[in-house]
Amino acid sequence: MNSMVENMNIQALDPKAFRRALGNFATGVTIMTAQNAQGERVGVTANSFNSVSLDPALILWSIDKNSSSYRIFSEATHFAVNILSAAQIDLSNKFARRAEDKFAGIEYEIGAGSSPILKNCSAVFECEKFNIVEGGDHWIIIGKVVKFHDYGRSPLLYHQGAYSAVLPHPSLNSKASTEESVFPGRLYNNMYYLLTQAVRAYQNDYQPKQLTSGFRTSEARLLLVLESKTATSKSDLQREVAMPIHEIEQATEILAQKGLLLDTGHSYELTAQGNECAHMLYKIAESHQEEVFAQYAPEDRELFKKMLKDLIGI
């Protein structure tokens, strides 16, 4: 009797409800790419990626048996796992749709076994095809990692059918102790010490939020400065951004590759898409600012800003 009840429960399993339940498990977003001996390229967006073994280094992902892309993955000797950064939603959508050539207009390099390697990802794993296992209505493709690239960008997440981003858990931001501290008078009356400690404390909570945009600090800072038009030339830019020149050069190169920035020769200008990204970053900054200074009256905030501007010389 119990066996019959169990069989009835299995048969009554609602695929849509099952998928919604699976959606509670937040995952990263990847684009799997490969190229066969005939030069046919393939790329699909997938969130079924997972690690299998450290020794040997094995990973897996799965693809629908009805997918037209499977043939090339089965023929190719290698494939690449491109883990998307939080700034690559458009790329994820592009490779999730059916298209004759998903790589049109996309910059990529050639990796192991001729697999296309996408740029500006969080990480990339170049894999030799290790095995393909049948798993219900999907093929489970197992790869042996032969090379990997760790870029450290904040990853794109997928949860309950929507894109999301990484933020530290609120409990991690709680103060270590609420007990009254004994402050050494001279040090805690030193303005320089207070200012540097205040900047550090502000950044500790703000930077993780900024990183959810998919832009590194150097890239975000450039976007904000260029949108504000406070730097009209490349020489002014280093002063406003306050970063080493090699960091600026690397960041401008990445932003240009993404189509967010144009080099006019004597200066940099944001494209329409670049301005949209800058506005998004400003919203993140303004939201954090409101959160930090919510306890202060508007006139106190304005006085604080005036004091900071006076110190800067604005």
From TrEMBL:
E.C. numbers: 1.5.1.36
Record's keyword terms, sorted: Oxidoreductase
Flavin reductase like domain: residues covered: 22-165
SMART domains to which the protein is assigned, alphabetical: Flavin_Reduct
InterPro entries in UniProt: Flavin_Rdtase-like_dom, NADH-dep_flavin_reductase, Split_barrel_FMN-bd, WH-like_DNA-bd_sf, WH_DNA-bd_sf
EC class (word): oxidoreductase
Signal peptide positions on this chain: none
GO MF terms held by the record: flavin reductase (NADH) activity; FMN binding; riboflavin reductase (NADPH) activity
Family, as annotated: Belongs to the non-flavoprotein flavin reductase family.
Protein name from the UniProt record: Flavin reductase
Organism: Acinetobacter sichuanensis
